[in-house]
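Comment thread on ticket #2218

A.B. wrote:
> Attaching the input chain for the structure job we discussed in standup.
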Amino acid sequence: MDITLLLASLWGPALLLIGIGMFISRAYYTRIYRDLEKDTLAVFLIGMVMLVAGIAQVLFHSIWNTLPQIVISLLGWATLVKGAVFIVAPSFVDKAGDRWANMNLIPVAGALMLLIGGYVTWVAYFV
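C.D. wrote:
> Ran it. Output below, let me know if you need it in another format.
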């Protein structure tokens, strides 16, 4: 199996289910964003996991030829950058989480997750 398809088969369903969850359980996801600032250890641990996962993906998949490869590479880089921000600037993460929750952007994030997750799942399982 090609590395792009392997990563797509992991990323796709995960993003798709998170996107669905953001619509079905909007209050739950809003609470996650609001409560994150109360648990500094969680912010650090999430940052570490994201940073390591992002570095691993970038090391194994930084391919920019086709649209599926570009999307998967961008997901790796986004994970790496987000993990670094969680570790280096946790106060920014707290403020951003509050802003997302206060501005009711959970449905926007859910729609983005559905679009990306749907596309990546389609590439992984149906192309």
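A.B. wrote:
> Thanks. Noting for the ticket: Residues 3-120 form one domain.
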